[in-house]
Amino acid sequence: MAVSEASSTDSSQKVNDAAERRREQNKMAQRRFRQRAKEARDEMERDKQNQERAGASYSAPESSELDQPSNLEGLPWGGISMQHVIQTGVEREKLSQAGSQDTAAPMAGTPQAGSSSQ
C-alpha cells in the first residue's frame, strides 16, 4: 500500500502542478490580451486625433481669395492666372468625384469577377 499511496500522491502533485501551471498561463494570456487590446484602442484614438488635426491643417484656397498681381511686366503672355488654375482644378476634382460615384454605384450590385454565386 505504501507504493500506491506514494504514486497517488505523486500523480495528484502533478495534477496540482499542471493545474497551477495552467492557471498561470491563463493569467499571462489574459494580461497579454488586455495589453494588446489597450494598445489597439490607444492606436485607434491616436489615428482619430491625427485625422482631426490633419483635416484642419490644410484647406484648398478658393479662387476668389487670391489677389490678382498687378505687375506682370516681365512675362510675354501676361503671366499665369492662379485664380484660373485653382478654379479649373476645383472643377476637375468635382467632375472626378462625380464620375467615381457614378461608376461605383452600379458596380456595388454586380458580382465580382472570379466569384461564383452558386
From TrEMBL:
Composition-biased stretches, type Basic and acidic residues, lie in 17-26, 36-51
State the Gene Ontology terms under molecular function.
DNA-binding transcription factor activity
Classification via CDD domains? bZIP
Matching SUPFAM superfamilies: Leucine zipper domain
Checking InterPro entries in the record gives: bZIP, bZIP_sf, Sec_Metab_Biosynth_Reg
Question: Domain BZIP: where?
Answer: 21-36
PROSITE patterns per UniProt: BZIP_BASIC
Span list, region Disordered: 1-118
Q: Where does this protein have compositionally biased stretches of type Polar residues?
A: 1-15, 60-71
UniProt name for this protein: BZIP domain-containing protein
Q: Which organism is it from?
A: Eremomyces bilateralis CBS 781.70
Taxonomically, what lineage is the organism?
Eukaryota, Fungi, Dikarya, Ascomycota, Pezizomycotina
